[in-house]
Specification:
Layout lengths: L3 H16 L13 H9 L3 E5 L6 H16 L6 E5 L13 H12 L7 E6 L7 H9 L4 E7 L2 H12 L3 E5 L5 H7 L12 H17 L3 H6 L4 H18 L4 H12 L5 E2 L1 H8 L4 H13 L3 E4 L6 H6 L2 E5 L2 H7 L7 H15 L3 E7 L2 E9 L2 E8 L6 H18 L3 E6 L4 E5 L2 E7 L2 H4 L2
Parallel strand pairs: 1-4, 1-5, 2-3, 3-4, 11-12, 12-14
Antiparallel strand pairs: 6-8, 7-8, 9-10, 10-11, 13-14
Helix pairs in contact: 1-4, 5-6, 8-15
Length: 437
């Protein structure tokens, strides 16, 4: 049991960090009307989830700055605590009451005004959901939490917080956010200015190499990405789940990172990385997915059974991380571009599948509300006739198969349109996906 004095010291110490937003990068989500409504108009607990180091703590700090400004509040009206702090590693659900009491004694907030509670990396506290559920019932408080493990968060949510919480997914920076950091504030008219389009293409080339983790963008120190990767593997999986065969897990993670954009069956993965026990392999894949390090998309089919029995395609959370930790014999620009396109669709909350049927292979079948809205191919360079013919062949067949009048081919910088067999094919620079909020 932690003492009140130790909790007060911790709150004061962490306050210096929380209130310091000098040099903080703005996130597009702060301008999202749905996110603002969650903060200002609902009583539901807001859960910010995402991979480690993607900016969840910074988003909390920026959210408080926004709340303070719009509501006219002072710093007595918030509590912030980061549960990754080694000084409170023994914190449990029974300490929450002492924490609130310590805050009240220390800050003496105005009880006639809303109090905002920010709990960072909440998954480190067992049974956190029970206490937060009680707080949610008290209209005095608005609770905002963050977490880096989808499984641990979803288990607690499904048990006690169903209908009482809303999850907001945060990712490493989009290309649009990357441009803002680099000092280029994009406006729609920039698309009609040749010099600005050239600058956007140059910035996209930088993004293609660096990725979207905030600290890496800020410092340019790409070796941080190796550290992030290893920390996620060790802290969120090996230590948490007491993994005995570390080497096998790391081999699996490296294998997945080196095979982005590929269809990988459980059987194939097991044989290539040497994990013979299918249950162990499935657990490892689940752990890697739940840390938001990798994403797996199924084959599109109206049959759920067919989706389950076909291999998934794998993608990594950040292209900069892929550049630093994957084993490859070429630059693999095509798969890198495909991964970036996937991430942009993901950030727009679309349902994403790959296509494989009588028409051949399609990189992406994009759905919204279970309805197909786009068929897409990805190709780094499309100018060569044989490359163009190959990409078009499957796309046109798929468009006819699904009765779609338009199809997309995402490229690095080529842009054009053409009619083929009465169907419209759009060649779109991949960076344009990010420019539409």
């Amino acid at each position: 049991m932690l003492t009140k004095n130790s909790l007060k010291e911790l709150l004061l110490d962490q306050e210096k960090y929380f209130l310091d937003i000098k040099g903080a990068y703005e996130r597009d989500i702060l301008d999202n009307i749905n996110f603002r409504d969650l903060i200002f108009k609902t009583q539901e607990i807001v859960i910010i989830s995402g991979i480690r180091r993607c900016g969840k703590s910074y988003l909390m700090r920026l959210a408080w700055s926004l709340i303070k400004k719009e509501k006219g509040l002072d710093n007595r009206q918030y509590l912030y605590i980061n549960f990754e702090d080694e000084r409170i590693m023994g914190f449990n659900k029974d300490d929450f009451s002492s924490l609130i009491e310590s805050y009240m004694e220390l800050k003496q907030p105005d009880l006639n005004k809303k109090i905002y509670l920010f709990f960072d990396e909440i998954q480190n506290v067992k049974n956190w959901d029970k206490f937060l559920n009680r707080l949610r019932e008290d209209s005095t408080y608005k609770v905002i939490i963050s977490g880096s493990n989808a499984s641990l968060l979803s288990n607690e949510i499904s048990t006690f917080l169903t209908g009482r919480s809303i999850t907001v997914n945060l990712y490493p920076f989009t290309f649009r956010e990357f441009m803002n950091v680099r000092g280029f504030k994009f406006e729609k008219q920039d698309l009609f200015d040749l010099n600005n389009k050239v600058q956007i293409a140059k910035l996209f080339n930088d993004y293609f190499d660096t990725g979207g983790f905030p600290e890496v963008i800020k410092t340019g120190y790409k070796q941080l990405l190796q550290e992030y990767f290893q920390n996620i593997i060790f802290r969120d999986i090996i230590a948490r789940f007491k993994i005995k065969h570390e080497f096998s897990l790391r081999e699996l993670a490296n294998f997945l990172a080196s095979n982005i954009g590929n269809n990988l069956s459980i059987k194939k993965i097991g044989s290539l990385v040497g994990i013979k026990n299918i249950t162990t392999l499935k657990n490892y894949l689940s752990y890697l997915k739940n840390t938001f390090l990798f994403y797996f998309i199924p084959k599109f089919s109206y049959s759920i059974k067919e989706q389950i029995y076909n291999p998934d395609k794998v993608y990594i959370a950040d292209i900069g991380m892929y550049n630093e930790i994957s084993f490859r014999f070429s630059e693999n620009k095509g798969k890198k571009l495909e991964n970036i396109v996937f991430l942009e669709f993901l950030k727009k909350d679309y349902q994403i599948y790959y296509g494989y049927d009588a028409f051949g292979d399609i990189d992406f079948i994009i759905c919204k509300n279970n309805r197909i809205i786009e068929l897409a191919q990805c190709c780094y360079e499309i100018e060569r006739a044989e490359t163009r013919e190959r990409e078009l062949k499957s796309l046109i067949k798929a468009m006819a198969f699904y009765k779609m009048k338009e199809g997309s081919i995402y490229t690095f910088d080529f842009e054009s349109e053409e009619q083929v067999d009465g169907m419209l094919i759009k060649y779109i620079p991949a960076w344009k996906l990010s420019l539409d909020k």
